[in-house]
Amino acid sequence: MPAVSIPSRQAEARARIVAAAGRRLADGIDAASLDEIAADADVARATLFNLFGHKDALLEAVLSPVLDDGLARLAAIAPGPPRARVAGLVDVYLALWATHRDALRVAYHAQSLRLGPLAHRHVAFVRAIVAVLDDAAGAGVLHARDAGPRPHRRAAARGPRRRRRGRPRLDPRRHVPADRRDRRRGGPRRRGVVISDT
Asked: How many Å apart are CA 24 and CA 37, to the nearest integer?
């Protein structure tokens, strides 16, 4: 049996710790304890502290790969027409989700934290995404539509309805087919981003 060198064992332990930290931190940064991460990675707590020192260094090790990969992929879609860039943005996010799912979830939780050395990369990543969306909106490729019927102000202020005693009151809208009810209101309305064909 060949002997395993110390640097390769440390690299292996580091990879296990980063993977375990990604899983634990994805459920909440404050909720994850270093003891749980060390147990999940099957290393001693002292090994975790020797390799990372503290939770911030561990957070950086989890987030650095997804930010670097995301910035490289976004730079690759930068040249091109707005429609192609939006499609490329969706492809970038799906690729990042497939390869760095836990890190993306950690990044979501880390938005309210100070990211220290990661801050400039995180800001660059977010700005690159916003630039693609702004260019697409400016070119008329993306636009938002109305969300549809909103609750009446008085009904919202009243709160939930109380149940009446006696015979239940029938709602005539429930007995009208949905397509007729929508036509009466001017058609079904939805909110969202739409990629137009023009």
From this structure: 7
Cα separation, 132 vs 93, whole angstroms: 13
Using an 8 Å Cβ cutoff, are 48 and 38 in contact? yes
Which structural domains are found in the chain, ordered by start?
6-144 (1.10.357.10)
Question: Full-prediction pTM beyond 0.90?
Answer: no
Residue 22: pLDDT over 80: yes
Higher pLDDT, 60 or 177: 60
Q: What SS3 state is found at 190?
A: coil
> 37-83, pLDDT tens digit by residue?
889 889 988 888 888 888 888 888 999 999 999 999 999 987 888 88
Tokens of 100: 């760095």
